[in-house]
Amino acid sequence: MTAMTARRALKQGFAISDVPGAKTVIQHIKDSSDFARACTEVEPLPPLAPLLRFRMRKPLVAALSAAVTQAIDTHGLHGWLSSEGRTTDGYLSLSLTHNPDLSDPGVTDVHQSTLGTSVNRQSEFYYGSTGRFHGLKNTYFDTYAFRVPTPAARVGALGEFLSQCRLSLVRSRLSVLYGGTQDLVPFETGWHRDEPVFENLRINIPLETVSTYKLQIEHESDAPSKDSKTMSTHHLAAGSAYTFDTHRPHRVFAAARSTVRRVHLVLGFSPWLRYDSRNGVWEPNEFFGRVHPFDIVRSGGLHPALRSPG
């Protein structure tokens, strides 16, 4: 395919129905357009901190927290699914997007949609192991197929906030970590990598937390170690939203037991592609090939409440 044909294909958009069964939506787009090349040509504007923080107004945080409580009360929380079954404690979540074409016998509620797969073992999630799948379309790994908000995502102020976001929502969830229900996990546990930020821009919004809950990011090595000089440790405080390069190895853990649960919104957005729900088509948005995902957020292009870094 020539470069001109590739650009024309992306401009016309990609119908989910046309994606081959062997590929995810985003892989099909990258193989059929200049998306991947464009990602290599757009750099973030300086300065750029390893962890970007955006202060949020207290009334908005309070309203989101109330909506999340209502969503949990109405739709419940669910554990992580693997071939060993679904976990029942410690780390529970609620899917905020779902794929109407997902077929997994372990997923019996749309609010479980983004929470693992019955195909992989528990240990096979952290670095995107896809070897057990014959095809990747409409699987757990097909991020752009999770494009429909769940009922929980439409509750109160949460629904209003998401409707005001200017980027299309993809794989997203509400996550709850209970720091007092189990022994502290070893350093090796929980490390994982998500998609590059050009494919999935993740915004983390803490709503309930205490300082014992930590985020660790390994900024250079692909094999995190306790004595790494390129690893940073952070507490994500309520009252702010955060984003960082989630394609780097990272993990969340409790550094000490706590009776306070950790409740976060983990929102994923497509920074360069817009979903046309009426026609089932992904098409380029106004930022494609021009603005780095981090700069979209910093300029208010995602949501006006996240405009100014703190």
How are the secondary structure elements laid out?
Layout: H1 3-12, E1 14-15, H2 25-31, H3 35-41, E2 51-55, H4 58-75, E3 81-82, E4 85-86, E5 91-95, E6 97-98, E7 148-149, H5 156-164, E8 168-169, E9 173-178, E10 201-208, E11 213-218, E12 231-234, E13 240-244, E14 250-254, E15 261-270, E16 273-276, E17 281-284, H6 293-298
Antiparallel strand pairs: 1-17, 2-13, 3-4, 5-9, 6-7, 8-15, 9-15, 10-15, 11-12, 11-14, 16-17
Tell me what you see in this structure.
There is one protein chain. The protein is α+β, with helices and mostly antiparallel strands. The protein has helices spanning 3-12, 25-31, 35-41, 58-75, 156-164, 293-298, and strands at residues 14-15, 51-55, 81-82, 85-86, 91-95, 97-98, 148-149, 168-169, 173-178, 201-208, 213-218, 231-234, 240-244, 250-254, 261-270, 273-276, 281-284. The strands form 6 sheets. Strands 5, 8, 9, 10 and 15 form a 5-stranded antiparallel β-sheet that branches. The protein has a 3-stranded antiparallel β-sheet with strand order 1-17-16. A 3-stranded antiparallel β-sheet has the order 12-11-14, with no helix packed on it. A hairpin with a 2-residue loop joins strand 3 and strand 4. The termini are far apart. The model has no long low-confidence stretch (mean pLDDT 93).
